[in-house]
Design a protein that fits this description.
29% strand, 5 domains, 8-stranded antiparallel beta sheet, alpha+beta, Elongation Factor Tu (Ef-tu), domain 3
């Protein structure tokens, strides 16, 4: 069963609500004031099932909107999610101001299909109807409702004349409406909030994408409140799930009516982010006045409305009939995604002046890159995805970030990534994605930093990873790992433990430095455990104090020397021999105190205590009271 949302549009008192009732049997005017005044004030809803041209069942949800100029804001809350429009024009009045405004709104929202309905055909003679028809054909020429491709049907809601023909016309048009994607991520803009006795909080809306199921958890945007779906109704009947394209009522647990309102949106939790700023493609109507940079406008998208400041890119003034890229800063937050259509109305007096499509709402504002916005406007998914990854540059992107930025499913993004990863345009490490252009820059930074380090400090084997990342933009561990792995494969660097160096660039010493290293090693190797003070050994070298200290640092790093306290340094062979001697005691004397250790090693207490603490750290011994247990 295919679900299609049908919206009415047209001037006040042209018979929109009467038409919906004649089609469905349902009075969409639900408010007492509407019935008393005989006009539609807020949006109303009805439903109908029709056989399609191919025998399939079409489930039609009707959204009836007010025609009075004072209630255009309510009309906009209802028309955002419709698939086809019934443009209603009374035969006894013809085209009127709200006919034009509603029609402009439908075009700006990108509605592609519809039926023009000449109502009240019983109120005038045939000649008058024909004159109005010609006027309407001229008005709609070269639009999506052009009479050459879209039907014009004369009806009378009072007598029922033409209703069956209209149903057939609606079914024929609805059959060609592309079905909304029920596999996409769910979004339900809320248009009504109320309490139902025995159920609690209920919201309604047109499910513009995805599927909502009972017992699912959802997030309310922009409040970030979590709610649970207690129950669902589709066209007045209980359902286990609602799919894209259906009018949906959701019974919610976890929120009161005071916490929810029209303009909010339900979506899966932890997937999207609300925003106050969007980059858009903006078009101005020919009938509008010029729009100056930094103007304030009324902004409408789906069921939400707010005030927005317009920053025009590359223009100071947008002329009537013109288009440009622009940045909108909204007074309130909303959930908006690329591809969402919107309407802007003049700040004062409040009339519709234009609209457009959201290109970017991902949080980096303003986005002045013309190439980036052009890529988004063209709409090629692979190109869009690559540009979104590349614009994150050295920070890298992720699947979850791309879902939040685009509104696309994870599966769809994964399918696009395959070719980009295979051809090397994008490098992937788990969930992290880095563009090749960013990798090239980071690789150059890393190599330059290592070269500078070697030049400044030739006596050190390599630069520490943390020190290296501090000098480059590859500060994230995973980003640095991608860069390092690429450079290692290209044989441009070597990674040894925590040290990074250029290939073959071990320590380069001058003759006197090499000689000093031999002297230091010999002094400690020959001393056994009765080592001299380090400062005394260094004082006898030919090299200066700074170079001598670097030589010692190198020997400590290579573990030729081992520092066990602030003052004591030993040769690694002496400590290895000590470990063997103490370990051998376990068979005969499993415990050893300071006195016995002094006898065993021949060292004074000044050396014995630090050496025993070293053995504890090395898990050769374990302190038990005043003695050590050999492990």
């Amino acid at each position: 069963m295919k679900s299609v949302i049908v919206g009415t549009a047209g001037h006040i008192d042209h018979g929109k609500t009467a038409l919906v009732k004649a089609l469905t049997g349902i009075d969409a005017d639900r408010l007492e004031e509407e019935k008393r005044r005989g006009i539609t004030i807020d949006i109303g809803f009805a439903h109908l099932e029709l056989p399609g041209p191919g025998g399939e069942v079409l489930r039609l949800g009707f959204v009836d909107v007010p025609g009075h100029e004072r209630f255009v804001r309510n009309m906009l809350a209802g028309v955002g999610g419709i698939d086809l429009v019934l443009l209603v024009i009374a035969a006894d009045e013809g085209i009127k101001p709200q006919t034009r405004e509603h029609f402009d709104i439908c075009r700006l929202l990108g509605i592609q299909r519809g039926v023009t309905v000449l109502t009240k055909s019983d109120a005038v003679d045939k000649d008058t109807v024909e004159v109005v028809r010609l006027e309407v054909e001229d008005f709609l020429r070269e639009s999506f409702l052009d009479a050459s491709q879209s039907p014009i049907v004369e009806i009378s809601a009072l007598t029922g004349a033409g209703i069956d023909e209209l149903k057939r016309a609606i079914a024929a048009v609805a059959a060609h409406v592309a079905a909304k994607d029920s596999t996409a991520i769910a979004r339900l803009p809320i248009d009504r909030v109320f309490t139902m006795k025995g159920f609690g909080t209920v919201v309604t809306g047109t499910l513009i994408s995805g599927t909502i199921r009972k017992e699912e958890e959802l997030e309310v945007f922009p409040s970030s409140q979590r709610v649970r779906v207690r129950g669902l109704q589709v066209h007045g009947a209980a359902a286990e799930q609602a799919v894209a394209g259906q009018r949906t009522a959701v019974n919610l647990a976890g929120a009161t009516v005071e916490e929810l309102s029209r303009g909010m949106t339900l979506a899966p939790p932890d997937m999207f982010r609300s925003t106050q700023r969007v980059d858009v493609s903006l078009s101005l109507l020919l009938s509008a006045k010029s729009l100056k940079n930094k103007s304030r406008v009324h902004f409408h998208a789906y069921t939400m409305e707010t005030i927005a400041e317009v920053t025009l890119y590359d223009l100071k003034v947008l002329r009537p009939g013109g288009s440009c890229h622009a940045h909108l800063k909204m007074a309130g937050e909303a959930l908006l995604l690329p591809g969402d259509h919107f309407i802007v109305r003049q700040f004062s007096p409040v009339i519709t002046i234009g609209g457009g499509v959201v290109l970017n709402s991902s949080g980096r504002f303003p986005e002045k890159s013309r190439d980036f916005l052009e890529t988004l406007a063209v709409g090629n998914p692979i190109a869009i995805l690559e540009r979104r990854i590349s614009r994150q540059f050295h920070d890298g992107s992720s699947i979850s970030l791309l879902v939040a930025e685009t509104g696309w499913t994870e599966a769809f993004i994964e399918s696009l990534l395959v070719a980009m990863v295979n051809n090397g345009r994008v490098i992937r490490r788990g969930n992290l994605l880095l563009h090749a252009s960013a990798l090239d820059v980071l690789k150059s930074q890393v190599v330059d930093a290592i070269e500078a380090f070697h030049k400044k400090d030739p006596l050190t084997k390599g630069i520490n990873k943390k020190e290296l990342t501090d000098q480059t933009d590859a500060v994230d561990d995973d980003i640095f790992a991608i860069v390092a792995e690429s450079l290692v494969r290209e044989n441009k660097i070597e990674v040894i433990g925590d040290l990074v160096r250029l290939p073959g660039r071990g320590v380069v010493m001058k003759d006197e430095e090499t000689e000093s290293k031999k002297i230091i090693e010999a002094a400690f190797a020959s001393a056994g455990l009765k080592v001299p003070f380090l400062k005394d050994v260094l004082a006898g070298l030919k090299v200066d104090k700074t170079r001598a200290q670097k030589i010692v640092t190198l020997m400590l790093r290579d573990k030729v020397l081992v520092k066990i306290s602030e003052d004591l340094v030993f040769h690694q062979s002496a400590l290895a021999d000590l470990k063997r001697k103490v370990s051998a005691l376990k068979a005969s004397t499993p415990k050893i105190d300071v006195a016995r250790f002094k006898d065993l090693t021949g060292v004074s207490r000044k050396y014995a205590i630090p050496l025993l603490e070293y053995l504890d750290r090395e898990r050769v011994t374990r302190r038990v009271g005043d003695s050590r247990e050999v492990l």
